[in-house]
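ok here's the first one, seq then struct tokens
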Amino acid sequence: MRSVKEEIAEKICYTELVYGRINKKLNIELPNNKIEEMVRSIINETEESAFQQKGKNIYVANKTRKIRLTINSNTFRIITADKLK
């Protein structure tokens, strides 16, 4: 059986709106391909224990980068990224 981390890494997808949302919420200005690279890196670097499913969303909290990703558990579409305190 595949882990949630492996499944997310393989199936993650994006909408046009999410790129702008991630740039705005993280206060950065990256092109779409760099955002995708960053998200892939965060998923790969984060321990499986930091993946938490609540309702229809999966939260990936990377304490090193101080970023939390929110991903829809049904579509594997990234919803947003937030700064952690």
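and now the second one, same deal
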Amino acid sequence: MFHTGKNIVNILKMRIYLTTIWAFILLVMGSSCVSHKQLVNYQEDFSDTTQLLSYKLPEIKIQPNDVLSIKVFGSEMELVAPFNITSNQQGESFVNIEAIQLTGFLVNQQGMIDFPVLGRLKLEGLSVTEVKDSLVERLKTYLKDPVVNVRLLNFRVTVSGEVRNPGAFNVVNERISLLDALALAGDLTDYADRKDILLVRENNGVRSLNRINLQSAAFFHSEYYFLKQNDLIYVKPLRSKAGAVQDQSSKAVPILSAAATVAAVLIALFKQ
């Protein structure tokens, strides 16, 4: 009977020991505040792709403060020369975008540019294709079969917040998605709130604030999937980040306290 009672006591001690250890492990694991679900994008059902495939690319419109590269070509170079701004740049390399922008046409606050020979032209509200077609028609008065190349030089998007490499990124074409921009910024961090990304967009002097949920299938056929020039993306941090960036000494206090409690319990149990 004596041995049986002692065995029961030892079993109870072992159970208390195991319970205490598990409680300590759960406490330590609780310090990793970001769940797997919070880190996963596109969690909804994507089986219906009809809307995704039929989405039309947005048409970029010229706005005040845009910078355009306009090059005119034709069979007779001496007749074409007056329509082109001379540049010291050796070809259009986008390595130094700031230098290239200095050689472009700046759209003023009235939406106009001063073009050689043709004078002041209203371009605000037109797409790059429409600007090209309009110039070709005007140049037919002076040139035979003119060819015009128009490119938007200031297509830039800014990404900040919970990304690995925040910054402003120049785009060499007129097609970049929000996902492309996030990739340029090194992708989202573990503490990025994928349900609440802010996109700041300006159209005709009016600034709009737009909330985007990357975990929703609706994002892929929304008007914010593709970006426009000068869009700003801010990735909001999760609330759990506040605990991750707090003072390290304050984070260690509850863990050390729990460890001391575990040690005290174990000493009391096995002291005898």
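notes on #2: The radius of gyration is 31 Å. The beta strands are 67-73, 105-106, 112-115, 119-122, 147-152, 156-161, 167-170, 192-203, 206-212, 232-237.
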